[in-house]
Specification:
The structure holds two protein chains of two kinds.
Chain A lengths: L1 H12 L2 H22 L13 H5 L3 H22 L1 H8 L3 H34 L19 H28 L2 H21 L3 H10 L1 H5 L15 H25 L3
Helix pairs in contact in A: 1-6, 2-4, 2-6, 4-5, 4-6, 4-7, 4-8, 6-7, 7-8, 7-11, 8-9
Chain B lengths: L19 H13 L2 H24 L17 E3 L1 E9 L2 E15 L5 E4 L5 E7 L8 E7 L4 E5 L3 E4 L8 E8 L2 E7 L6 E7 L5 E9 L3 E3 L2 E3 L2 E13 L7 E5 L16 E5 L2 E6 L3 E3 L11 H4 L3 H21 L2 H8 L3 H37 L9 H29 L2 H19 L6 H10 L32 H25 L3
Helix pairs in contact in B: 1-6, 2-4, 2-6, 4-5, 4-6, 4-7, 4-8, 6-7, 6-10, 7-8, 7-10, 8-9
Classes of the chains: A mainly alpha, B alpha+beta.
Chain lengths: 258, 506
């Protein structure tokens, strides 16, 4: 296992694109958070708003780059035929897959931590200038606040879960463009579709089950009673999607000819 | 050595042609012989239909009260407190308005004074107390001065008087209704004349309306109270008893009174105090929250878009992956033309698939919505055609954008993500309820998501306050202008791709 891990780490480290994707992910996350926090305003005391969530909104964009990274780790091996070498060197396919999952999770967790903490810092810097001050009922963002800490740790976890979900889907689909299409559809479409579903029960169900709308409830720090699903359960729903994708990935990888 | 003359070999085949038509034909052959791509396009069209189906069957509003419609069949809000009596023949009615105060809710069951710019108090002559019946009215408003309105859509500004007491008069002569305003009750200014079919006896009198006011990103109910004096009937109109009534109290477009307020009127020694809520205006998104639009039916465009973008990116990146690009560029060394041929073939296929999907989705969606009792904002058939063609054009432009980005990046994952994030993410951000209206308008003006304006069917009315944001199906750009933004991105990236393709070694 350690040799497999070492091999995967070498593959990831010696190609330029993963590093650029991770840097891009950090930049995109922080940029969107900065943009969003500089357009929201709080005019007077008692204005609503979830400052933690505003600061972490960049994750909605950052996850797309995490998905590309995870997809490329798999599909580039298929498109170049490298997968045959990999599986010849390490015939235990589950081990290969686990090694890939661990390396990708590791780098995404590190880059995700940087991206999420930087977003929070940006929010902490910008939001008070937009009127989100202590006198308006919004204390300065701080990890000492339990809910903000939960949102921060949850967002990092969410990014790693998206990486795992993408890995699983990429193994099943193999083609990179189609995998990315499937993943982004799974993430971005349900919140849009939920708007046109007239039946409130179906709408609610979709919000509870969709990987993005359920998982990102972990970022909420206000109006916790009006969330479609409670935060940890929401992240659990995303984890269930990732687990299902990984399981199908393992099954397909073991049973299918590479 | 004797050498005979050698005849060089000439192939019996005719010369190959390298015209643009051949290029188009070869690109079409490449496209339609890959089953996955044809299936992808079919899937895109199917997504439009499936989402329309989902929207249709998941909504059930059978038994909901009917939406009131105005003289032209357009949906209207017609809710106000009416102090009226029947008025037969010609005559005039005059009144002075000495105060108009509005309140908005604060907490549960509490009210605080507020500014409602389009709170209305004045005189109205109306065919009957039925919702949606023809009327003409002259009124003072919260902050838009004296106005004369009729037919729900028409709004005329009158003189804005600084004096607190404003005098209003409505005069009927046959089918002509003329409104006058005055600062002192002596010098009268004619505001306008409208022609209405009212029948011999109309209902006329005082009215107070108080529409929902925009607060932050939502709206809040409001209530207004006006003080009237010097009420007098002249000409052929003679006074009887005044009766108070809430018009359209059960209407789906009426948000009701913020508690504890209620519609009422009191009369003491010539002074009328009238409290009312509601509005007399064309219906907008917020007054009919359960109504649907063509844009709602076509939400599947997002799903179709993802399929189209994937196929479009693969159409070029597969050439790089399979090294087919070398053959392609050897056969047709003019690289810009190759890219153009690809864009035309891809755009045309996408347009056809998108149009088929949109037309079926609209037909199916409208039928399902109607059979489930869902009210749809009415559209003319030319608007419907514009939405269907625009949706197809949107998908086609997105496919060209994805093709160009694919040619620049040469890898499909990056191209697909870039294009989807550029079109879908702005829309997702705009759909966030906390997104300020200005930021949402900017996003739907400059990003490729502006193209969804081509699906809008709702009209913005200056005389109705409403959060006119993209989230509520009101886009800042005109339909074709919005589409032009996406087309601009597509053309620009196609040009960049052509330059890059020419400069770079394949």
């Amino acid at each position: 296992m350690s040799t497999a891990l070492h091999a995967e780490w070498t593959k990831l480290r010696t190609v330029a694109s993963p590093l650029w994707l991770l840097l891009g992910m950090i930049a995109a996350t922080v940029a969107l958070s900065a943009g969003a926090t500089s357009v929201v305003t709080c005019a007077a005391a008692g204005c609503g708003g979830d400052v933690t969530r505003y600061s972490l909104i960049g994750v909605e964009l950052g996850q797309a780059l995490v998905a590309i990274l995870a997809v490329l780790v798999i599909s580039s091996e298929y498109s170049s035929g490298m997968i045959r070498t990999t599986l010849t060197a390490v015939p235990r396919r589950t081990t290969v897959f686990a090694a890939k999952a661990i390396t990708v999770t590791g780098v995404v967790a590190v880059a995700g931590t940087i991206a999420v903490l930087a977003s929070l810092l940006v929010g902490r810097f910008i939001l008070p200038r937009q009127g989100f001050t202590a006198s308006h009922g919004h204390p300065v963002l701080s990890l000492a606040d339990g809910l903000t800490l939960r949102a921060t740790a949850g967002s990092i976890l969410y990014l790693t879960l998206i990486a795992l979900l993408s890995l699983g889907i990429a193994v099943v689909v193999r083609d990179s463009a189609t995998s990315i299409g499937v993943i982004l559809g799974l993430l971005y479409l349900p919140p849009i579709l939920a708007q046109v579903i007239g039946n409130p029960h179906w709408q609610h169900l979709l919000q509870r089950l969709a990987p993005m709308s359920a998982g990102l409830t972990i970022q909420a720090t206000t109006n916790l009673n009006s969330l479609p699903i409670c935060p940890w359960a929401g992240l659990g729903a995303t984890a269930a999607w990732s687990a299902a994708a990984l399981t199908s990935g393992v099954v397909v990888l073991r049973t299918r000819d590479a | 050595m004797v050498t005979g003359s050698v005849t060089p070999y000439r192939s019996g085949q005719r010369d190959g042609r390298d015209g643009f038509a051949q290029l188009l034909h070869s690109e079409w052959t490449k496209f339609h012989t890959v089953r996955g791509w044809m299936l992808g396009m079919a899937a895109a069209a199917l997504m439009l239909v499936l989402v329309a189906l989902l929207a249709g069957i998941s909504s059930d509003q059978r038994g909901a009260p009917a939406v009131p419609t105005g003289p032209g069949g357009e949906p209207v809000t017609d809710n106000f407190y009416f102090v009226h009596q029947p008025l037969t023949g010609d005559g005039s009615i005059t009144v002075s308005v000495s105060g108009l105060d509005s309140s908005v809710p604060e907490g549960l069951g509490e009210l605080r004074p507020g500014v409602v710019p389009w709170a209305k108090a004045g005189l109205i002559v109306k065919e009957s107390t039925r919702e949606g019946s023809p009327y003409a009215a002259i009124m003072v408003t919260g902050s838009h001065g004296v106005r004369m309105q009729d037919g729900y859509l028409n709004d005329r500004a009158g003189p804005v008087s600084a004096a607190a007491v404003r005098w209003l008069r409505l005069e009927r002569s046959g089918d002509a209704i003329t409104g006058y305003a005055s600062a002192d009750g002596k010098d009268w200014t004619r505001v306008g004349t409208v022609h209405l079919e009212l029948g011999p006896t109309a209902q006329g009198g005082l009215f107070v309306a108080s529409p929902q006011s925009v607060e932050g990103m939502g709206t809040t109910a409001s209530v207004s109270t006006a003080t009237f004096g010097d009420l007098r009937l002249q000409g052929g109109w003679t006074g009887r008893n005044w009766a108070g009534e809430q018009v359209g109290g059960e209407s789906p477009s009426f948000a009701g009174y913020p508690p504890p307020a209620a519609g009422s009127f009191t009369r003491s020694s010539g002074t009328f105090t009238v409290t009312g809520a509601g509005d007399i205006a064309p219906a907008v998104r917020y007054s009919l929250p359960t109504a649907g639009t063509l844009g709602n039916i076509l939400t599947g465009t997002f799903a179709g878009l993802i399929a189209v973008v994937v196929v479009a990116a693969l159409f070029i990146t597969t050439e790089y992956r399979k090294k087919l690009i070398l053959v392609t560029l050897t056969a047709s060394p003019k690289r810009g033309r190759v890219l153009l041929a690809k864009a035309i073939v891809l755009g045309a296929v996408t347009f056809v698939a998108g149009l088929a999907g949109a037309v079926v989705a609209i037909q199916l969606g409208e039928r399902l919505a109607r059979s489930n009792g869902v009210y749809l904002f009415p559209v003319t058939s030319s608007t419907e055609l514009r939405v269907a063609l625009g949706t197809a054009a949107l998908l086609a432009a997105a496919s060209v954008l994805a093709l160009s980005v694919g040619a620049i990046f040469r890898t499909s994952a990056g191209a697909v993500t870039t294009v989807i994030a550029a079109i879908v993410l702005p829309y997702l951000l705009v759909a966030n309820p906390f997104m300020p209206a200005d930021a949402a308008r900017l996003l739907t003006r400059v990003t490729p998501a502006a193209a969804f304006a081509v699906q809008q069917t709702l009209v913005q009315y200056p005389q109705v306050e409403n959060p006119y944001t993209p989230y509520n199906d009101y886009y800042p750009l005109a339909p074709w202008a919005g589409l032009a933004v996406l087309a601009g991105y597509a053309v620009a990236s196609l040009a960049i791709a052509a330059v890059v393709l020419r400069r770079r070694d394949a």
